[in-house]
Amino acid sequence: MSRKVDTFRQQIANPQNIHNFLVDIPELGAYGITIQSTSYPSEMARVTTLYIAGEPISYPTVPENSHRWPIRIPENDSGTAYSLCEGLRKKWWDQKTGAITVGLNNPYQDIVVYARDLNSNINFQVKLKNAWCMGRSDVQLDQSDPSQNWKWDYMFCFDYIEDMPPAE
Question: Which of 68, 105, 114, 163 is most buried (CB neighbours < 10 A)?
Fold first, then answer.
């Protein structure tokens, strides 16, 4: 058993953690560092199955992804997160008139999610191409626990994923 443990230690001395990530949403600027949680987006190949002599044979086809990406961002006492995130949404939607302005002022942007090691070096990263802010979820309000903080759950839509090598 000790050989297995030694081999494991050689391969994974320090496992990658999930708390040291960074998200770059250009229009959030420095406030983007406050993003509390999100997911690392992924894609998988679709599968086509053909039957040869009654046996199923699976072939990979084009990859697909969810085209949705959530973030949770805490609010400060000045309402900064709300202002910045709603500003992203207002680039394509005018709530008062109902006008959709996609194409006129181009609400699309690329968002980058970085996975970092314990020394904050970037190990890998993914770029969400042509992302735009879909909107926010409800926030459950509760007067019984004053220690809880306001957090927004925003959802973004994107076209495709570009896996990128670590930044140089």
Answer: 114
Q: What is the CATH number of the domain that holds 107?
A: 2.30.110
**Closest alpha carbon to 154 in 140, 126, 131, 134:** 134
Supply the Cα-derived Rg of the chain in whole angstroms. Answer: 21
Residue at 10 is within a domain: no
Residue 91's beta-bridge partner residues? Answer: none
Q: How far apart are CA 127 and CA 40, in angstroms?
A: 10
Q: Taking a C-beta distance cutoff of 8 angstroms, is the pair 131, 157 a contact?
A: yes
Instruction: Please state the φ and ψ torsions of residue 49, each to the nearest 5 degrees.
Output: -110, 125
Domain with 96 in it: 16-39+46-140+147-164
- pLDDT tens digits, residue range 3-18? 887 777 777 777 888 9
Flag whether 32 is in a domain. Answer: yes
Share of the chain above pLDDT 70, in %: 96
Among the listed residues 96, 74, 77, the one whose alpha carbon sits nearest the alpha carbon of residue 85: 74
